[in-house]
Fold this protein.
Amino acid sequence: MIQDIGEKLFKNEFSLCRRPAASDRVIVYRSGEMAYLAENNIIGFPKVCQLPAEYADKLTYLFEVEGEGFFLLLTDGDITEVLPEKYSFGSIRKIRSTDPQPRKYLFAGFTAQHLAEWYLNSRFCGRCGAENVHDESERAMICPECGKKVYPRIDPAVIVGVVSGEKLLITRYRKGFAHNALVAGFTEIGESLEATVSREVMEETGIKVKNIRYYKSQPWGIAANILAGFFCEAEGDCAIHMDENELKYAEWLRSDEIVLQPYDHSLTNEMMKLFKSIGRRVLEK
């Protein structure tokens, strides 16, 4: 999966006072896009030393990946003229679409977008409207007027592999991502993750489930999610009653019939791949 770069390689400890080194990377973020370089399917982000010195005081420390610091530069203007040669702006979805290397930079782009959007959306206090400031001790924005503090938004959602006999329930979304997927959805207020699994499968396909088993989780910065993967078993009638507002395809497929997604970025793809490998034994994991 996209975050599988080694636990010791990614350090997200907060530091408000960390100063950028010349070799650290900068995520220059504008209108949902970031500046990047792509050559021969290798991606890169600008180094601090490649930007004018006047921008140094505008950088916000994000995290460290394999010893490289990553900083954020938010801009709403056209600064393409100060970017290094061959750099251009693109969405993380566009950057992801060719499975560029190194994988650690793709993961950095995902996570940087998560934080960039949160910083943009947290500029002002949601209670009194005053302009927020950076908290000095943790990654949070705090209102200097009323004291309300906000943390990075993380939306929990589930990915569900539903098994019936030797088949897995495969779906495709009505809009957006065009490849094979699994039942998925957001956790609602007052709901456990297991309850989300049961509700989402019923809402999208009309199928009741049992034997719900947790598999793995994945941070998904594109949508500010933490995804929790579950396998479960269909109970009773397995006839599919598809929600056509959410899905355009839903079918029970044998392992040899399942077509995987083009790249191994997602938890969904790993779960489909596991079923192709061991079949209904996924329920024993």
In short: The mean pLDDT is 94. The chain is about 15% helix and 35% strand.
